[in-house]
Amino acid sequence: MKLYNISFNNLRRRQGKMVFLVMGLFIGIATIVTLLSITDSMSRDIEDRLDQFGANIVMVPKSDNLSLSYGGISVGGVSYESTDFDEASIQKIFEIENSKNLGAVVPKILGSAEVSGRKVLLMGTVFEDELNLKTWWQYEGQLPMAGEIMVGSAAAATLELSLNQEVPIGSQTFKVGAVLHPTGGPEDNIIVGNLAEMQQVLGKVGRISMVEISAFCRGCPISDMVLQIAAQFPEGKVTALKQAVMSKMQSIEMFKSFSYGIAVLVVFIGSLLVFVTMMGSVNERTREIGIFRAIGFRRGHVMQIILLEAMVVGLVGGLLGYLGGNGAAWAVMPLVLKDGAFAGINTTLGVVSILLAVTLSLLASLYPALKASRLDPSEALRAL
Amino acid sequence: MASVQVQVETVEHLIEVRGLQKHYQSGDTQVSAIKEMDFFIDDGEFVTIMGQSGSGKSTLLSIMGGLNHPSAGEMLVDTLDLYRLSSEQRADFRSEYIGIIFQSFQLIPYLTVRENVKMPMAITGISAKKQDEMAVAVLERVGLSDKMDRLPDQLSGGEQERVAIARAIVNNPPILLADEPTGNLDSETSEEIMKLLQELNRDGQTVIMVTHNPDTSRYSKRIITVRDGRCTVGACAA
C-alpha cells in the first residue's frame, strides 16, 4: 500500500464524483479546443483563399508626379508614361531572400493607343499568369492566343467590339479572342493583349510599366518582402496592397480575440467548478482526513493524496476534452464555413490543453488540499 | 520507534500525565473538560478510563493520542513530552507509538478490508510484500481472513470493529487506545471484542480504553474513574 493506492482507489470506487470533476474539465477544455480549432481552420481557409485573391504587392516606376485620379475619375498627369523598367531586370525579383514566398509575378506594359477613333488603355501581359492572379475574371470566348486580345466589358460596348472581330491597333490587326464580363474594376475599360505584341504596338519592346506580385501565404512577411524588392529596384516604387488583406485579417483577428475571450471565460468557469467540487469533496472527506492524520499521516501525505487525485482528474479531463474538442470542431467546421475543412489535429494544442487541465485541477485543489492538511485531527474526527 | 525526535525526560512509566488541564471556550463561557489530572500507566497495563458522558474521558484519550493540545500540564510518553513536539512530529509519534480504535470504526469506505489494514503502513518504508504478510497475519488473528477483499459496508458492525482493531495493531504500536470500542455493538459481539483486546494485552500490548459501560471495564486490570474533569478519589493512584 502506497499513498497513490489510496488516491486511485478513491477515484476508482467513487466514480460519480470522478465523473463530475472530469466532466467539468472536459467541457472547459473541449470548448477551448473547439473554438481554437475552428479559428485556426477559418484562418487557414481564409488565408488560402486570399492566396488566390490577386496581387498584394505592386511595383511601379518611381515618379515625381502625384497621381491625379480618384475614385475612377482621372484628371491627367498619367505618370506611367514617363518611365518604365527593363524587362530583363524583372528576374531580379526572384533573387530576394523570401523568394520562396513569391506566388505569381506578372510584369505588364501599359500605354494608350487609338482604336476605332478613341483613345484606349492597352495592357500587355502574360495571360496565363494574369488569370492566375485575377481568379475572379470571367470571360466569353477563349483564352487569347498570339494575335488575339481580350476586351473589357465597357471597352467592348463603347468600341462596339464583339468576339472574333478584327480590330486594327496601331500598325497591327488583332482578333477579339475574349470579352471580359464586367468586374467593376479598371479592366472593364481596357484592352488586354499578349505582352510582347503590346510592347511592339506601344513601341516599348523590352520595357515593363509595372509588376503585380502575389505573395500571400501563411506567415508571409509581406512588409519584409516589399523592402527586399525595393532594394533590388531602386528605380521602382514598391507598395503592399494592404487594405484588402488587412481587412480580411482583421476579421480573423477579431474572431481570434473573441475566441480567446470565450476561452478565458470558460477556463475561469471551469476552474471555479473544479474548485467548488474539490472543496465539496474535501469537506465531505473531513472525517476521512481526520483518520489519516490520527493514524500518523503528515500534512504532506494528505496533500499528496488529494493533489494526486486532482492530477489524474486533470489528465483524464484534459485528454478527453482535447479529443472531444477536436471532434466537435471537425463536426461543426462545415457548418461555420461553407466548404471549410477542419485544419487537422494540432499536437501542440493537445499538449497545452492537457497541461492546462492538469494545472487548473491542481490549482483548484491546492487550497482545499492545504485546508484539509491543516485540519485538526480531533476536530476532524469529533468522535475523539 | 526511534525516528521521532525526542526530548529526554526522566520518566519511570510508559505514560505520565502531569497536572493536565483542558479548557475551551463555548460562546462566552469557559468549559473545563479536564480540570486537573495526574496519573501514570505502565507498559503492559490494560487500563479503563470510565466516566459518564461529558466527564472528560474522551478528551483525555485524544490528548493521550497526541490529537488534542492540552491547556496546561505535561503528557509524557516513553521519553517524549508530547506537546512540545511540532504537529508533524506528533503525527510521526502517532504512526510509531499509537494504535487507535475509534468509536464508530472509522474505516475508509473505498478501501477493502485488506487495504484499510495496510493503510498505516502506506507512509512507512515497508515493502508491499511484507505489508501484505503483516495485514494477512493480523486479519487472521482477528478472524477475518475470509473477508479481506470486501469493502467495509459489506461487513457487520462486529466485523468492522475487528478491522479497526487489526488496523490499529498492524504496525505493532506499543500503545493501543480504544474509544468506546463496544459502543455500537450488541452484547455478544462486545464480549468477543473485549476478549480480543484482553488477548492482545496478555501478549504484551498496553491497552487504554475509554468507556461508560461498567460491563466492559471488568476485562481491564485497572480502572481510572473520571468525574467533572478530575479523577475520583484514589482513582488515579496505581
If you had to describe this structure to a student in words, what would you say it looks like?
The complex is a heterodimer of chains A (384) and B (238). Helices cover 53% and strands 17% of the residues of chain A. Chain A has helices at residues 3-13, 15-51, 127-133, 153-159, 195-201, 222-232, 242-284, 286-294, 299-336, 347-373, 377-381; strands at residues 57-61, 69-70, 73-74, 85-86, 105-115, 118-125, 139-141, 148-151, 166-169, 172-180, 190-194, 207-208, 210-213, 236-240. In chain A, strands 1, 5, 6, 7, 8, 9, 10, 11, 13 and 14 form a ten-stranded mixed beta sheet that branches. Chain A has a two-stranded antiparallel ribbon with strand order 2-3. Chain A has a two-stranded antiparallel sheet with strand order 4-12. Chain A is rod-shaped and about 110 Å long. Chain B has 238 residues and is of the alpha/beta class. Chain B has a domain at 44-69 and 97-231: P-loop containing nucleotide triphosphate hydrolases (Rossmann fold, 3-Layer(aba) Sandwich), CATH 3.40.50.300. In chain B, strands 6-7-8-3-9-10 form a six-stranded mixed beta sheet, sandwiched between helices. Chain B has a four-stranded antiparallel beta sheet with strand order 2-1-4-5, with helices on one face.
Reported for the largest beta sheet of chain B, the result is: 6 strands, mixed
CATH topological fold name of the domain at 44-69 and 97-231 in chain B: Rossmann fold
Specify the structural class of chain A: alpha+beta
Broad structural category of chain B: alpha/beta
List the helices and strands and how they pair.
The complex is a heterodimer of chains A (384) and B (238).
Chain A: H1 3-13, H2 15-51, E1 57-61, E2 69-70, E3 73-74, E4 85-86, E5 105-115, E6 118-125, H3 127-133, E7 139-141, E8 148-151, H4 153-159, E9 166-169, E10 172-180, E11 190-194, H5 195-201, E12 207-208, E13 210-213, H6 222-232, E14 236-240, H7 242-284, H8 286-294, H9 299-336, H10 347-373, H11 377-381
Parallel strand pairs in A: 6-11, 8-10
Antiparallel strand pairs in A: 1-13, 1-14, 2-3, 4-12, 5-6, 5-13, 7-10, 8-11, 9-10
Helix pairs in contact in A: 1-9, 2-7, 2-9, 2-10, 7-10, 9-10
Chain B: E1 15-26, E2 29-41, E3 46-50, H1 57-64, E4 72-77, E5 80-81, H2 87-97, E6 98-101, H3 113-118, H4 128-141, H5 157-169, E7 175-179, H6 187-202, E8 206-211, H7 214-217, E9 222-227, E10 230-231
Parallel strand pairs in B: 3-8, 3-9, 6-7, 7-8
Antiparallel strand pairs in B: 1-2, 1-4, 4-5, 9-10
Helix pairs in contact in B: 4-5, 5-6
